[in-house]
């Protein structure tokens, strides 16, 4: 293991905990100013810098900002220039010019990690999305395949928040608030504007990214569930302040701005924050801590019961993007078709699989793969799953789903699909076949009673 590992905390106690708290952290005692945010001279000669994640006048319950106390302020850099080479596969404003629509169910096989050296930024590519980062309403779904750490550079996404779901390989993420180790099975949120760099201690790495424009993730309301359950606020972990003070000649800030990359040079690390306080922070969450609720008598609950985080729209109950998981759990429903029901949805559903299998697909939906079922496109269990479930009959008994972690990004917006994703060699062109074998089990019990003819004659009269 690299000597850098000691800098990336692996124990929960190495983090602050909570969701949407007002946190504070100082890596040197006394580095945080007392009783005010911006004194004439900050302790230890630091610069005060605010990062605003919401407009100044956002309602208090939604307002997010943090104060960073740093060795040099972020503004100390040369002008931004378009990055050379361009990144051709990042989209932040989906239109007829750069993306297509297709209502067909689409499934992708897992994409291979490239052999050539590729870091997180170059390995990131948009798959689909809707809306516009410019208009502050929309989302993008990306995936990444990478194999090397970012070197002497940091990434900053001015367009939106990233929710990263690693599937292969740990992420060692250095942020302005401190360091996070994120393993497959955990997720991390990097809010709009934070600078971060990604090291890949395990080499070949792959994962999924949801990006949201113009809002932030919240914990879902629990309604009749009560005060506890699903993702608990205390299980969200926030890094503690740590800083680099050494000179870093030629250090590059890579800024994603309107889906395009720009670079600016500076001679120091952006991770020079000695202390900080606020409620606008990067955070991670271990999906194994999720407390699932489920049906205990009949029928399959709607997947919203497994919402980890939601990015709301202005319409009550309508999500710009929900992050929903399908974790290990007991299935106990009686005389019930237990897998997900056949479905057409006004929302659009993008699914991924972190490990194991998914209960509605016996074959073909593989870890690292993905599927997209767009607005009102039918979907549901494949033929094999349907027939196997029916064969079990009504006396299936309690059954524990083990070794699985599937997830869904669900949005009220209709996604457009990037051309490289539609034309990808990893598209599973036989996906539709998994339903073609569904046969009619219809038993027409009216044939011998004459009831059908009776109804027809009523209609005609
Ligand atoms: Fe669905």
TrEMBL record:
<feature type="binding site">
    <location>
        <position position="358"/>
    </location>
    <ligand>
        <name>homogentisate</name>
    </ligand>
</feature>
<dbReference type="GO" id="GO:0004411">
    <property type="term" value="F:homogentisate 1,2-dioxygenase activity"/>
</dbReference>
<feature type="active site" description="Proton acceptor">
    <location>
        <position position="300"/>
    </location>
</feature>
<dbReference type="GO" id="GO:0006559">
    <property type="term" value="P:L-phenylalanine catabolic process"/>
</dbReference>
<feature type="binding site">
    <location>
        <position position="379"/>
    </location>
    <ligand>
        <name>Fe cation</name>
    </ligand>
</feature>
<dbReference type="InterPro" id="IPR014710">
    <property type="entry name" value="RmlC-like_jellyroll"/>
</dbReference>
<comment type="pathway">
    <text>Amino-acid degradation; L-phenylalanine degradation; acetoacetate and fumarate from L-phenylalanine: step 4/6.</text>
</comment>
<feature type="domain" description="Homogentisate 1,2-dioxygenase N-terminal">
    <location>
        <begin position="15"/>
        <end position="287"/>
    </location>
</feature>
<keyword id="KW-0223">Dioxygenase</keyword>
<dbReference type="InterPro" id="IPR046451">
    <property type="entry name" value="HgmA_C"/>
</dbReference>
<dbReference type="GO" id="GO:0046872">
    <property type="term" value="F:metal ion binding"/>
</dbReference>
<feature type="domain" description="Homogentisate 1,2-dioxygenase C-terminal">
    <location>
        <begin position="288"/>
        <end position="442"/>
    </location>
</feature>
<feature type="binding site">
    <location>
        <position position="349"/>
    </location>
    <ligand>
        <name>Fe cation</name>
    </ligand>
</feature>
<feature type="binding site">
    <location>
        <position position="343"/>
    </location>
    <ligand>
        <name>Fe cation</name>
    </ligand>
</feature>
<dbReference type="InterPro" id="IPR005708">
    <property type="entry name" value="Homogentis_dOase"/>
</dbReference>
<dbReference type="InterPro" id="IPR046452">
    <property type="entry name" value="HgmA_N"/>
</dbReference>
<protein>
    <recommendedName>
        <fullName>Homogentisate 1,2-dioxygenase</fullName>
        <ecNumber>1.13.11.5</ecNumber>
    </recommendedName>
</protein>
<dbReference type="InterPro" id="IPR011051">
    <property type="entry name" value="RmlC_Cupin_sf"/>
</dbReference>
<keyword id="KW-0828">Tyrosine catabolism</keyword>
<keyword id="KW-0585">Phenylalanine catabolism</keyword>
<keyword id="KW-0479">Metal-binding</keyword>
<feature type="binding site">
    <location>
        <position position="379"/>
    </location>
    <ligand>
        <name>homogentisate</name>
    </ligand>
</feature>
<keyword id="KW-0560">Oxidoreductase</keyword>
<dbReference type="Pfam" id="PF20510">
    <property type="entry name" value="HgmA_N"/>
</dbReference>
<dbReference type="Pfam" id="PF04209">
    <property type="entry name" value="HgmA_C"/>
</dbReference>
<comment type="similarity">
    <text>Belongs to the homogentisate dioxygenase family.</text>
</comment>
<keyword id="KW-0408">Iron</keyword>
<dbReference type="GO" id="GO:0006572">
    <property type="term" value="P:L-tyrosine catabolic process"/>
</dbReference>
